[in-house]
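At this stage, I needed to go through a protein sequence along with its fold in token form, as given directly below:
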Amino acid sequence: MPDEGKGTDLVDRAAAMPLYHQIYLQLRDEIISGQRPHGSLMPTEQELSALFAVSRITARRVLDDLARQDYVVRRRRIGTTVTFHAPARPIEANIDQALDSLLALGDNTRVTVLDVAQETAPASVAEALGLAPGAQVVRAVRLRSLDDTPLGYILSYVPARFADVLTADRLATTPMLRLLEQAGHKAETAEQTIGAMLADTAMARALAVEPPAALLRVTRTSHNLSGTPILLTFAHYRSDRFHVRLELSHK
């Protein structure tokens, strides 16, 4: 489940776009990206109202719009359940080359650590990392810049056992993958999905773009040699500054 508890920072009350539509777009993007997976429960009208500091009428409209677009189904006494199935299928790639590219990106850009904290894993994060419900994770939020221009807003989760490894000071100077490797957990395989989403208010502010600007969203789960998930990352890149290039060959 995505980050919650930011209150009014999640919406831009001065924007021309209506509040209900800002909330709708955020929740829709979370469903499409897999942050809210098929079968998971959405927040109730009361919870949405409190989270975004809006009326119950606005919250109800958001959930009704999601239902009309077949992202969720609403049932009395059960709640609102995600029914969307992501159509993306995994693509196999050379993980060594992919990780080399990620490390090179980390070495050639400047990182500002916005937040590092230990917290209870949201349900979808615990599932992705193979952890028990309610397990603790380290949540890190970083801003990656190139030539003093914000490039990416990076949200990462690792199991709490890495808390001593992934400190704010270390993350400011060393790529997360390299820190994990130094701790004896080199990423050997990864699953990655690339999609698009609209920037929420916090992301837009950090990336110096106007909400709701389009972002390139990269979701990646990395595994160690034994196949254990060690890192879940949601990377949000400015579409005007970041592009994905694939080299294809006939073998």
Observations:
- The chain has two domains: 7-82, 95-238.
- Residues 1-8, 88-97 have pLDDT under 50 and may be disordered.
- Residues 141 and 155 are 5 Å apart (CA to CA).
